[in-house]
Specification:
Strand content: 35-45%
Order of helices and strands: EHHEEEE
Radius of gyration: 12 Å
Structural class: alpha+beta
Number of strands: 5
Shape: elongated
Number of domains: 1
Largest sheet: 5 strands, antiparallel
Distance between the termini: 8 Å
Length: 96
């Protein structure tokens, strides 16, 4: 089973909002997973990313997303809120 762990600058996203709410984290995480930085780490571009809204915007709060790779495989992603306006993708794993 292929598993990626996204660490360092390539895995951190900073939200543009002054004070991000739960919906901002959900929406921006989906866009980030569909972006070039995650594609570089995973070796595949992702589409159809959907994220659950985190329970809170507190640092340390975790939430999940799913997205579809170019080959049609659905991946699960784990994310953690790491600051007032930022999150980190901590892991990505294909389902199955």
């Amino acid at each position: 089973m292929k598993k990626i762990i996204l660490m360092g600058a390539a895995a951190v996203a900073v939200l543009g909002a002054c004070s991000a709410d739960k919906t901002d984290f959900k929406d921006q995480a989906a866009k980030f997973i569909e972006g070039d930085k995650v594609a570089e780490q995973a070796g595949s571009k992702f589409t159809d990313a959907e994220c659950v809204e985190p329970a809170s915007t507190d640092t340390g709060e975790t939430f999940t997303c799913t997205a579809t790779a170019e080959d049609g495989t659905v991946w699960d992603f784990d994310l953690e809120i790491t600051g007032d306006n930022e999150f980190t993708v901590t892991a990505g794993t294909p389902q199955g």
